[in-house]
Amino acid sequence: MKPTKKNSGKLHVNNKHKEGYNFKDLCEVYPDLKPFVFINEYGTETLDFSNPKAVKAINTALLFKYYNITFWDFPDDNLCPPIPGRVDYIHYLADLLEASKICKDASIIDVGVGANCIYPLLGNSVYGWNFLGTDIDKKSIDRAEKIIKKNKLSNAIKLVQQKDASQIFKGILNENAKFSATICNPPFYKSQEDAMQANARKLEGLGKQSDEARNFSGKQQELWYKGGEKAFLHTFLYESSMFKTQCFWYTTLVSKKENAESMLPSLKKLGATEIKTIPMHQGNKVTRIVSWTFLTKEEQLNW
Predict the structure, then answer these.
(1) Predicted local confidence at residue 229, as pLDDT
(2) Does any domain span residue 72?
(3) Which regions of the chain are under pLDDT 50?
């Protein structure tokens, strides 16, 4: 088998998946992937990315092969994250922390850790970071906890439930907290209908009919939020301003350019001392990381 070339876009220079997938190697570490691999009309090994079971299998194989993970399982109706895109966020966050000279021994809050626990797994594997993962869903916390224990990562990754679904940092942070950064993949949609319509467009782009395959996974708290991404983000940044010295860099993914732009004047009003927008390219998809700090230059130097 020859390695397949998949359009990975402009992934981070340190991303192990920027040259595509070697299915032979991946099938060796995770044999359950084999039934999904086939030769397409161009003579290239690939798999059906509209099949949710195939998507889960390829991402499990990537974790097993490259990130020292030996167990990764969660219900099929939970979100299955694409590893190349998720680890891209980790690499860009590492660049940000390195520039601030706080990359080593970093402590990260993952807002909305989810049942898959993907950011803590990747961040710990690649950079040795410690994590506190938060989520409003107790079942997701329990599933993520099982993954952590099975991989013997309980000393590096801690989880806590956010019991007030209207809050993000209240009840989690206190005046004595000290974290290097936050990481967050916010719910993008306003409603289930909005999410389903986006999924139908995605399937159409893959050459599938919306009823031909259900490449749609994710629970409500993972995918939609009242008011959509913009509403979530403004709650996020407002609450971050209530804990200005408890975290060096607040960061979050933002899917829509206009939502990122709307954050800037609000952050300035709230007292952010530095704001950065980091573009991320994955295939034809463009997203961005918005990061900000409330620390003065002196506070940053003394962190």
Answers:
(1) 86
(2) no
(3) 1-8, 189-203, 205-206, 210-224
pTM of the model: 0.86
In a domain, 36, yes or no: no
Contacts 24+ apart (CB under 8 A), 91-94: 91/12, 91/14, 91/15, 91/126, 92/12, 92/278, 92/280, 92/289, 93/123, 93/181, 93/183, 93/249, 93/251, 93/289, 94/14, 94/126, 94/127
Residue 45, domain member (yes or no): no
Mutual angle of helices 228-240 and 257-270, in 10-degree steps: 20
d(CA 164, CA 123): 26
CATH code of the domain containing 273: 3.40.50.150
Give domain status of residue 20, yes or no. Answer: no
Range 105-129 burial, b when 16+ CB lie within 10 A, else e: ebbbbbbbbbbbbbbbbbbbbbbeb
The phi, psi pair for 180, rounded to 5°, reads -75, -35
Number of domains in the chain: 1
Reported as a single tens digit per residue, the pLDDT across 12-33 is 999 999 999 999 999 999 999 9
Radius of gyration of the chain (CA): 19
Question: What domain range is 119 assigned to?
Answer: 77-301
pLDDT tens-digit readout, 110-127: 999 999 999 999 999 999
- Please give the backbone phi and psi of residue 225, each rounded to the nearest 5 degrees, phi first: -150, 140
**How far apart, in whole angstroms, are the C-alpha atoms of residue 58 and residue 54?**
6
The confidence score (pLDDT) of residue 212 equals 40
Render the burial of 214-223: b for 16+ CB within 10 Å, e for the rest.
Answer: ebbbbbebbb
